[in-house]
């Protein structure tokens, strides 16, 4: 699934759709350069789970846990991860194994240590906006994509239905 996200509002709106489609569980990898919109997308995911406030980048703490209406969300940012040992030290392995939703920025920094994700989201800059490419990596991930495809808002953002116009 490939989407065109024209501005920050849409990035958050898409995050909210994704948050609903995830139904409170799974591991989501968010890949993309600095400024690609990973944290903004996470804000939408958290909002869908009932978090209204700001979202701080856990760049130095590596993970920010959220306890929301019956849902636990762990927001990882591995940008500054030097050694996976640091993740072991803060109990990262247990957090990832929990029946919770884990959103992981910079998963490539934890390669070889992180368990396989359910869903991979690749974000890239496109003009003033962003493009998102989503790929399922498990049955849960596939179900998430199917739920997303059934959401009316997403049809208007799809690059597939817009054909080659954007190129
Ligand atoms: N779809 C979008 N279109 C335009 N600007 C966006 C979009 N998504 C996010 N931004 C902006 O990009 C900047 C970086 O976003 P951020 O989520 O912090 O990126 P990352 O976490 O990938 O480094 C922010 O100023 C944000 O408002
Ligand atoms: Mg970020």
Automatic annotation (TrEMBL):
A GO CC annotation given for this chain: cytoplasm
Gene Ontology process terms (BP): tRNA threonylcarbamoyladenosine modification
Keyword set, alphabetical order: ATP-binding, Cytoplasm, Magnesium, Metal-binding, Nucleotide-binding, tRNA processing
Domain of life: Bacteria
Keyword tRNA processing: yes
GO molecular function: ATP binding; metal ion binding
Residues spanning the membrane: none
Pfam families: TsaE (PF02367)
Main subcellular location of this protein, as a coarse class: cytoplasm
Compartment(s): Cytoplasm
Entry similarity comment: Belongs to the TsaE family.
Matches recorded under PANTHER family: TRNA THREONYLCARBAMOYLADENOSINE BIOSYNTHESIS PROTEIN TSAE
Name the record gives this protein: tRNA threonylcarbamoyladenosine biosynthesis protein TsaE
Organism of origin: Halomonas daqiaonensis
